[in-house]
Design goal:
This protein has 33 helices and no strands. By secondary structure, it is mainly alpha-helical. The longest helix has about 30 residues. About 0% of the residues have low confidence.
């Protein structure tokens, strides 16, 4: 290639014609002579004085020659590399290792990624002996600058990360993992600069999948754990956070090796959660969440073994660390619940201390079950009506978090007593308290609906309904969620089939009317409100008693009309299109559930109108819409049986011919 630098830079040119020509030139070079092209790319990467952007692009392009999301394509690319002449591969690898020692940061970092891809292909086959030897020298030698050490450790981390996801490769030889681990542990030593320790800690986290042999050796295991625990005390928060990520990974992979270190881990994590900055405290909480996940799995395995009358596999015994720490762990987690972030946007990917604490508390409840109740309830009872909104919200969140796990016999009485208090809290002056309260009631309706006092049912329905139009989208969405779960509790109600009615019937007209009004709110696209309201309507219809049939027959033409009107909604942006098609899918879903609740005679007058609208839905290019439209069509066909073909033959012809759909 005449000028590789210019060609690589051309791939970033805003002019489409220049960019396309450059991309085609690179593709031609790859197809013409792959070994020569690979060497040209890594030579560009390793040559000092070249344009830095071009050097990065060269390294990334080389890396991408070995990478593919599709497993078959990635295997094919690996096979191409392995089929290259060994001498040609050696030349490429020499340039890559040289690039790791570049005085420039960007080429070094790119070289770390490119080296890792080659290493992931070759290390499982005990090839490229120079790779680990060079990286060990880079990290341990006093002659190499810190930047080279960091890039080398990054390279080891990338290599382990890639090895973990490549299928059908041989296991890494023990001496290879030993050398990798030795290099990484050297980098994480407490006398190293923080930037090096951070790179080493990150690499260690990725390498733990391959260190089973080392973790089986007590001396080596002690050395690894000591190194990690020391790193949790680093002055650099990034190092401390990475160290706790390693501890969580060890908990996940080597639970059976934790016992000698639990007292130390207990003290370290508790101190960090109480006193460290949030990013590190979150990782310390993650340790306890991971521990809960592991213990739940082990407890389930033990129960299955007991049922089958066989012993638990050696090394798979649950030590019940969470239960042992319960008296101290629960107060620590409830303290985190009081550190709410009022300004957090809960609709985004927000993750903060109070959220992590609530998630961990929920996992604790699922792990220790009934044992959590006497430990958590004093906090709930003493704070749920506090003058401090943070304590009120934290108490309600704590109660919500332990609803799943404990038995109905133990948690049920507290649920029964909580309903009047929670209904009052739905009118709390602070929006976060109302939000959490609505979610708590939704969880109760989902998990413990039988514990709700019968006499409070009217107030429960009316209060939830009153929050649908008057509150923020977040609170209204949670109220819809609660009504959804309350309606779901009436599924399979045999008494309603016999008597013709159920407790929901009296409220159905107002509920359906209000929820449909919610879907028309200008802010209904926030906090998933529109979807939550439609889903609540759907479940209410599905579990309605026979005496609600006239109401459903009134509702059906309204829904058909809404679907018809939706086609004229303006579409100016992709977001508009997504909202419009999402609405159409939800309306198709309602047509389906109403159809299944009424008779053929009820559907006949509306069949052609419904099918005409479904035809238009099928003209969209939205798979979810298509699925909902076909489900609605199927429901109508089931109800109308033989009359379906007569009354809707022409419409179905349009659907499957003009709409370019083919019957299977």
């Amino acid at each position: 290639m005449a000028d590789l630098t210019a060609t690589l830079l051309g791939c970033q040119n805003p002019d489409p014609s220049v960019r396309t020509a450059a991309e085609q030139a690179l593709q031609n070079a790859e197809n013409t002579n792959l070994p020569e092209f690979c060497l040209a790319l890594v030579t560009e990467l390793s040559t000092e004085g070249k344009d830095l952007a071009a050097r990065q692009l060269a390294g990334l392009h080389f890396k991408n020659l070995l990478v593919a999301k599709d497993e078959a394509l990635q295997t094919a690319r690996h096979d191409k590399w392995k089929a290259m002449d060994p001498a040609a591969r050696a030349s490429v690898k020499t340039c890559l290792l040289a690039s790791l020692r570049s005085p420039e940061t960007a080429p070094r970092h790119t070289a770390a990624q490119a080296c890792a891809e080659v290493a992931a292909v070759e290390l499982p086959y005990n090839e490229w002996q120079e790779f680990l030897a060079t990286l060990m020298e880079n990290v341990t030698s006093n002659d190499q600058p810190d930047g080279v050490k960091i890039s080398s450790l990054e390279c080891l981390g990338f290599t382990c990360e890639r090895l973990a996801v490549i299928d059908n490769a041989p296991d890494i030889a023990p001496d290879t993992t030993d050398r990798m681990l030795t290099t990484i542990v050297d980098g994480i030593r407490n006398d190293r600069p923080d930037a090096i320790r951070f790179a080493a800690a990150t690499a260690l986290r990725n390498s733990l999948l391959f260190t089973r042999k080392n973790m089986e050796n007590e001396n080596e295991r002690n050395m690894i754990m000591q190194t990690i625990c020391e790193a949790t005390q680093s002055a650099d928060s990034r190092v401390r956070g990475a160290a706790y990520e390693c501890i969580s990974q060890i908990t996940f992979q080597y639970y059976d090796k934790l016992q000698p270190y639990m007292q130390t881990l207990f003290q370290l994590t508790f101190n960090t959660i109480k006193n460290d900055e949030e990013s590190v405290a979150l990782q310390a909480i993650e340790f306890w969440s991971t521990l809960c996940d592991e213990e739940m799995e082990l407890i389930d395995e033990a129960a299955e073994c007991a049922e089958r009358g066989i012993p638990v596999e050696s090394g798979r015994e649950c030590v019940r660390y969470v239960a042992a720490a319960l008296e101290h762990l629960v107060p620590l987690l409830t303290e985190t619940l009081t550190k709410q972030d009022e300004d957090a946007d809960v609709d985004e990917d927000t993750w903060n201390l109070s959220m992590a604490g609530a998630t961990c508390l929920s996992l604790v409840a699922n792990t220790v079950e009934d044992l959590v109740v006497p430990v958590i309830m004093p906090f709930v009872q003493s704070n749920i009506q506090s003058d401090n909104w943070r304590l009120r919200e934290a108490a309600i969140m704590a109660f919500s978090s332990v609803l799943e796990g404990p038995s109905m016999e133990i948690i049920g009485p507290y649920v029964n007593q909580s309903i009047p208090v929670l209904l009052n809290a739905l009118s709390d002056p602070h929006v976060l308290v109302k939000d959490t309260t609505a979610w708590a009631i939704g969880r109760i309706c989902e998990l413990h609906v039988r514990a709700i006092p019968e006499e409070t049912f009217p107030q429960l329905v009316n209060v939830l309904m009153s929050k649908l139009l008057s509150e923020t989208p977040r609170v209204s969405s949670q109220a819809s969620f609660a009504l959804h779960n309350l309606a779901a509790a009436f599924a399979g109600d045999e008494a309603a089939a016999a008597s013709g009615t159920n407790a929901l019937s009296a409220y159905m007209p107002a509920l359906l009317q209000t929820l449909l009004q919610v879907t028309d709110r200008k802010d209904a696209d926030e906090s998933n409100l529109r979807v939550a309201a439609f889903e609540a309507v759907s479940v209410l219809i599905q579990n309605s008693a026979p005496d609600c049939k006239p109401l459903l027959l009134q509702l059906l033409p309204v829904i058909i009309g809404r679907l018809s009107q939706s086609f004229s909604l303006p579409v100016l942006t992709n977001e508009d299109r997504e909202q419009k098609e999402g609405l159409q899918g939800l309306l198709c879903g309602l047509i389906q559930v109403i159809t299944l609740k009424v008779t053929k005679e009820d559907i006949m007058p509306h069949a052609d109108s419904i099918m005409t609208n479904l035809l238009q839905v099928l003209q969209t290019k939205n798979a979810t819409c298509h699925e909902e439209a076909f489900s609605a069509t199927s429901a109508i066909a089931d109800q109308m049986e033989a009359d379906f073909e007569v009354s809707t033959a022409y419409t179905m012809y349009l659907v499957f011919n003009e709409g370019n759909f083919i019957l299977p």
